[in-house]
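Fill-in record for Flavodoxin family protein.
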Amino acid sequence: MKKILLINSSNRKKNTYKLLCSIEDILKNKGYETELISLSSFKIDFCKGCEACILKGSCFIKDEANIIMQKIIKSDGLVIGTPVYLNNMSGILKTFIDRTCSWFHRSEIAKKPTLIIANTQGSGLENTLNSIKEVMIQWGAFLGGTISRNGRNFNQPIEEKELVQFIKLIESKGKCYEPSFKEIYTYNIQRALATNIFPIDKEYWIKKGWLDKEYFPGVKLNIIQKIYCEGLYKLLIKVIEPNNKNN
């Protein structure tokens, strides 16, 4: 049975939580196992910016951020819900995201189907959703759509049709995914960094079978995207000069 992890990024169990519960009910009715967690239930310290996770492969901070990361890794799909605070995601969600910095270099959740939900009584939905989308692209997760609610339509029930793209990705294991040029560009930036800069990244990318691939294996690119990838990567490995001390 496929398992879906739902993350509540509000410090309360009100609007965001209720919307996530509605999504959870739909997923359960579709036969999925679910787990709904609140970030506020975990001890998540601020990132120190030391880059130990990038350069050495592990974080020295002793808290519970890794528990959440492991839950995401082990899930078959991810739903992230947040209220809008000052035109963006909640602070606790941003704090957690900062702790996943190594996933930009060595994603442990590449191709993970992800659904984003945000709600507000006022404005800021578009910016909030776009901010989280940017993170998902850097994680290498596959975007399975967004759901939003505001003061005008908050009481509108979550409908199964709003989860169609997300469920399709889960069932196809990402094989039906059509990446944007932004996603392809980000992948090849990461690929170039792995090739020329970080030995630990290079070892990981070779192990995953990514280093010689234009994009994540199993995803079909059209001819234009393939040409774009080939030219982009060749340019990037010239622009991003090799770190000879580490290679």
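KEY FINDING: Strands lie at 3-8, 33-38, 77-83, 113-119, 142-149.
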